[in-house]
Amino acid sequence: MLLTAEAKRDGVPQVRFFTWVLGSLLCGVPQVRFFTWVLGFGMPSELKRYYGRGDLHFVTFSCYQRLPLLGTESARNVFVHELEKVRNEMGFRLVGYVVMPEHVHLLMSEPRIGTPSTVLQKLKLRVSLKMRKGREVGSAERFRLPVEEEGVLPRAFWQARFYDFNVNTIGKRREKLSYMHANPVVRGLVEHPEDWPWSSWSSYMGEEAGLIAIDFEQ
Fold this sequence. Notes:
Strand 4 (94-99) and strand 5 (103-108) form a beta hairpin. Residues 1-45 and 136-140 have low confidence and may be disordered. The longest helix is centred in the middle third of the chain and has 19 residues, at 116-134. The strands form two sheets. The chain has a four-stranded antiparallel beta sheet, sandwiched between helices. A two-stranded antiparallel ribbon has the order 1-2. The chain is built from four helices and six strands, in the order E-E-E-H-E-E-H-E-H-H. It has helices at 73-90, 116-134, 170-186, 201-205; strands spanning 21-22, 37-38, 56-63, 94-99, 103-108, 158-167. Helix 1 (73-90) crosses helix 2 (116-134). The chain is α+β, with helices and mostly antiparallel strands. It starts with 20 loop residues before the first strand and ends in a 13-residue tail after the last helix. Helix content is 27%, strand content 16%.
C-alpha cells in the first residue's frame, strides 16, 4: 500500500557517537541524587559513514533498550519541537520523519556545518535535557516517562548506536518515506497515517502543515 504522494522524496544517513553524560537526573526516587543518561559511545570502526556526496540520509535511532520513552504525546511533542530548533540552527533539510514510541526515523540532508552525526549528537542531548528538566518537581510542564509507572528507571534515554543509510535516487527516497509513514499503521498504533501527527505524512498529502515544516525535494 503506497502511503505517500508521488511528488517529492529522497534520503539516507549515518552517524558516529560521542559520550555525553547527563548528571542529576531526577528519577522520582529521593535517595537517588544523580542518574547518568548516556547519549552514545564511539561507533565500531567497521561501520562506515559516507558524507560529502550530496546524498540524503535515512537515519534511525532508538530509545535506550528500545523502551517506549517517547510513548507519550508530550514526549513526542518535545522531540519534534527540539528537532525543528536544531534543524534551524544547523541548516539541514528535513525531507521526512516519524517519531515512534521507542525509535525515530529521519530523512535529512547533511547540515551546512558538520555531519548528520553532529546533528544527532545535538538533537539527542537537547531532548534528553528537556525531558530531564520536565521531570523535575515543580516544573511548569511536568513530564513522566511511560516506564515510570512500572517502576523502571532507565540509566539512559537514548541507545548508543544508530543506523545511517545514504539515499541518492528518487525511488529509494519514495521507499523510505512510504516506510516511515506506514510505520504507525503497521505497528497497530493507528488505522491510517493521518491519525499519527508525529510524522511528515500530512505535509506530503497537502492536508495541513503538520507539526514541523518539511523541505520537499524536486
